Amino acid sequence: MKHLILGNGPAGVVAAEALRRAAPRDEIVMVGSENLPSYSRMAIPYLLEGNIDESGTYLRKTPGHFDALGVRLLDGRAVALDVAKQTVLFADGHFETYDRLLVATGSHPVRPPIPGVDLPEVQTCWTLTDARAIAALAKPGARVLQLGAGFIGCIIMEALAKRGVQLTVVEMGDRMVPRMMTPKAGGMIKHWVEKQGIRVVTSAGVERIERADGGDAPLTVSLSTGDKLACDLVIVAAGVAPNVAFLDATPVHVAKGVLVDARMETSVPGIFAAGDVAEAPDLFTGAHLVSAIQPNAADQARVAAINMAGGNARMPGVLAINVLDTLGLISTSFGQWWGDPDGQGVEVVDEAAFRYLSLQFKDDVLIGATSIGMTQHVGALRGLIQGRLKLGRWKDVLLESPQRFFEAYLAATQPDSVARRQAAAAFA
Questions:
Q1: Contact 275/260 with Cβ under 8 angstroms?
Q2: What is the pLDDT of residues 106-154, one digit of tens each?
Q3: By the number of CB atoms within 10 A of the CB, which of 11, 25, 175, 197 ranks highest?
């Protein structure tokens, strides 16, 4: 049995290792497209901050790790798939056969159709090559404009701030991280960032990037607000899109990403997908979504690998998990943080202390949560949501006092210990 893994990021690496455990004698081939060792994109900001060197981004540090596992490594970019012949064509013209195929090709940064977006001083921040280019231009005092204040944008923003640049962040949404934070929470994060000396412009976009006509900056950036900014560097952090072009004209069903079932199998038997490229069923609604975070990629890769080796593993459903450190302010969101039209919710705000908590319920189950400035026991929110634990009377308690979520978690998972504590308190 030959297993072909397209992609050597977190999903591909975890899948290769899980396959080797499940199928000790099978042939495994893992293909990367950057001619670099397997690395984590999420480590690139730490590289830009100077906390690690490039080797610190590598997913596996031991030399010969994959050789020891008997995993053959290839460099190549898939350009076409022939399902009938079970072959993949690569950009260099060679074919690779397979018995089982894992699509773990990840995603690529989106470049909006803005005049001037292809100028050399306009960079994305997605690859190690990108990081090298940014490091060369983002010197202390450099004038940098970042387009996008989503999850990835906020991580990049912190790295840029630590490099000592003069930073302006432009976000089309009405708040920062609009796809993981409620309006109030996103507004609080914006206020926090501005207090750290970074200019943030929301509900705005970049209309044009031009070569400067004189002055000491190479670029002039025109905003939809009418402002014109002199810039040494523009970083585009406007989101990513799954790498699925090579699946055109195949029977593999693709929407935003590659559609998979709970086994991580696609519409074509024997072909699986995992990671940023996979569009899998949501834990609560069953609707398909792409959840481009590393923990989900690893979980999906393990399930796919077991099934590729002949097992029968299933994902319980994708859970949106976001944990963000924005210049020292910790924020989280889990599940359906935006709530349910037929459910109930509660929100507690302390703007002066930069503390915030939102809980969203469907019947007596917590389905979503958002927090700012909270680190203690915050994992209990994820546990309540992921476990789909019935809260019973604790739902009413949380609607009145949402900060008691950890007690609710203990009551749902360890009811005997909670009863003993309550009895002890009553006689104290």
A1: no
A2: 999 999 999 999 999 999 999 999 999 999 999 999 999 999 999 989 9
A3: 11
Could you tell me how many residues make up the chain?
A: 428
Task: Please check whether residues 348 and 414 belong to one and the same domain.
Answer: yes
Q: Domain residues for 197?
A: 122-236
| CATH number, domain containing residue 271 | 3.50.50.60
Of 88, 71, 86, nearest in space to 29 by CA? 71
> What is the tens place of the pLDDT at every residue in 233-256?
999 999 999 999 999 999 999 999
CATH of residue 356: 3.30.390.30
Say yes or no: 131 and 228 in one domain: yes
Q: Three-class SS of residue 148?
A: coil
Name the strands in the sheet holding 228-231, side by side, starting at the edge strand that comes first in the sequence. 206-211, 219-223, 228-231
CA distance 41 to 88: 25
Question: pTM for the full model?
Answer: 0.92
DSSP 282: B
Residues 156, 45: contact at Cβ < 8 Å? yes
